[in-house]
Task: inverse folding
């Protein structure tokens, strides 16, 4: 019953809108959005790498060797399992341009054969086939280089450059090539030449630091796992390395995973910082609801009902904030997909991926729980009875007894009387003033009744006789104040309205709990005689 009642309270308070929760929603939604967006981009890159794995590798499989070419046995085995074999040699060298002075630039050279590329295509500027570009001009072999190298060296198509002792003519700018992502780390911009054109360059002599890669185009339906096992068994001691399209861009995928994990941590840090804002927003909201909480307690609401009421409110708003963050985190990468794809040298397949969105939602819910449960903790509505139990009056016993004597004499008993007449109809001509006056009286009576209930609760739960007796007298005075204000409300018609509202929203509250003070009468016999008598006189 308490849960359904709390839900009704929460639903009614939420009708007032999101005022007080804008910071809460902003902090939560932005943190979840950042994590969801990063996860979506990472999943999009991973999906693109899986789809274009063979093109990124440059073939269905690759056999790698270091500092040497394949032996006859290795080459024969590769040709026996593949339809086509393409050989590339990768090494670093200095590109030399001779003008008035000699200029040199480091480049990562890839020497290819006529079968390159097996899968995908090379994009050149100006557009032309790769074999035409590498054919050269007037007997001089051709070379293509990346734009950054050409601009650095100040060369354009038609200029002559040198690798080792061999001259080449620059025929085009290398814009894109299929196995870029699988090439690993390079110290310089890429250059592509034919392997046979390096025969007189002196660069492929014994001892050259080079990597030789053989890309294989396998028959349809080849068992990649079985071929890898055969390669490892037959060429275990030769230094052969096997890679295939199941993991065509291993280095890139590992980098993306690490970068994605780092960005998720950044997003979590932002969410944690936003959690401070969430906590502050909840505290501020609850502070503004002090009068409402006091009213609910006055009308008999338990701490459980109050906690559940605001917990349900925060829970509903948390779900709204997390959902908003997930929605933005899914849509923003899709909106900026063309821009992101244009900036990445690897394929990206943008779509809505559930897993990163679910992860972002879980992080958001955990953050909201961690930073809202503390402000919502029931101790906010509790009195520290243990501290009051140990209050020692003895150092001020003389003054204390005088004060208690004044309480017992109840000198203010006859003060709270209306000794003049006023006409409530005067306020009818000014509805706004009447509303403000009613609000003042309701706020005042709420505070008085809340104090009455609080002091009664302390008296009930504290066995310290001095404190208990003081709380009894203070509850008496608070109830008297509330009754005096209630008479003014009766004349204005506010009391009846408030009572009906209380009865409607708290149908299950026992009458004794609603009247609060009268419960104290029933237990008057358990109090000191003077206190019980005072309560009877006050009533």
Result:
């Amino acid at each position: 019953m308490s849960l359904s009642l709390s839900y009704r309270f929460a639903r009614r308070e939420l009708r007032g809108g999101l005022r007080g929760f804008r910071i809460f929603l902003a902090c939560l939604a932005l943190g979840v959005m950042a994590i969801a967006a990063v996860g979506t981009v990472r999943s999009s890159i991973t999906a693109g790498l899986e789809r274009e794995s063979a093109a990124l590798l440059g073939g269905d499989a690759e056999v790698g060797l270091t500092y040497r070419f394949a032996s006859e046995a290795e080459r024969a085995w590769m040709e026996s399992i593949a339809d086509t074999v393409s050989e590339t040699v990768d090494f670093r060298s200095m590109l030399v341009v001779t003008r008035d002075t000699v200029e040199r630039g480091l480049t990562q050279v890839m020497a290819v054969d006529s079968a390159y590329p097996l899968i995908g295509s090379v994009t050149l500027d100006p557009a032309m086939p790769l074999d035409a570009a590498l054919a050269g001009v007037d007997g001089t072999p051709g070379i293509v280089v990346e734009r950054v190298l050409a601009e650095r060296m100040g060369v354009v198509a038609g200029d002559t450059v040198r690798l080792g002792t061999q001259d080449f003519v620059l025929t085009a700018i290398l814009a894109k090539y299929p196995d870029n992502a699988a090439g690993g780390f390079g110290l310089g911009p890429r250059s592509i030449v034919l392997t046979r054109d390096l025969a007189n360059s002196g660069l492929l002599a014994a001892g050259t630091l080079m990597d030789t890669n053989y890309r294989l185009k396998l028959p349809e339906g080849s068992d990649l796992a079985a071929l890898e096992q055969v390669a490892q068994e037959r060429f275990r001691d030769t230094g052969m390395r096997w890679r295939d399209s199941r993991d065509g861009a291993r280095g890139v995928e590992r980098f993306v995973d690490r970068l994605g994990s780092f960005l998720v941590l950044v997003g979590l840090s932002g969410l944690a910082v936003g959690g401070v804002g969430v906590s502050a927003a909840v505290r501020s909201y609850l502070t503004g609801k002090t009068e409402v909480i006091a009213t609910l307690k006055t009308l008999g609401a338990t701490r459980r009902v109050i906690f559940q009421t605001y917990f349900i409110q925060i829970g509903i708003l948390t779900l709204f904030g997390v959902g908003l963050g997930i929605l933005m985190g899914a849509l923003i990468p899709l909106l900026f997909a063309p821009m992101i794809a244009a900036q990445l040298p690897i394929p990206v397949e943008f779509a809505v991926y559930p897993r990163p969105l679910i992860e972002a939602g879980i992080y958001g819910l955990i953050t909201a729980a961690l930073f809202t449960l503390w402000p919502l903790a029931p101790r906010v509505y509790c009195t520290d009875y243990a501290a009051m139990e140990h209050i020692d009056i003895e150092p001020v016993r003389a003054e204390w007894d005088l004060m208690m004597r004044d309480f017992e004499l109840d000198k203010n008993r006859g003060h709270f009387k209306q000794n003049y007449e006023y006409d409530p109809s005067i306020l009818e001509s000014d509805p706004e003033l009447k509303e403000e006056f009613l609000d003042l009286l309701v706020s005042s009576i709420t505070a008085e009744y809340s104090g009455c209930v609080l002091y009664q609760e302390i008296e009930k739960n504290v066995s310290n006789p001095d404190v208990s007796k003081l709380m009894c007298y203070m509850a008496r005075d608070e109830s008297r104040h509330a009754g005096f204000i209630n008479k003014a409300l009766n004349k204005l018609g506010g009391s009846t309205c408030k009572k009906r509202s209380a009865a409607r929203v708290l149908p299950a509250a026992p009458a004794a709990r609603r009247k609060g003070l009268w419960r104290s009468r029933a237990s008057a016999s358990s109090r000191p005689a003077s206190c019980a008598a005072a309560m009877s006189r006050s009533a």
About this structure: Residues 495-530, 532-539 have pLDDT under 50 and may be disordered. The first helix runs from residue 2 to 14.
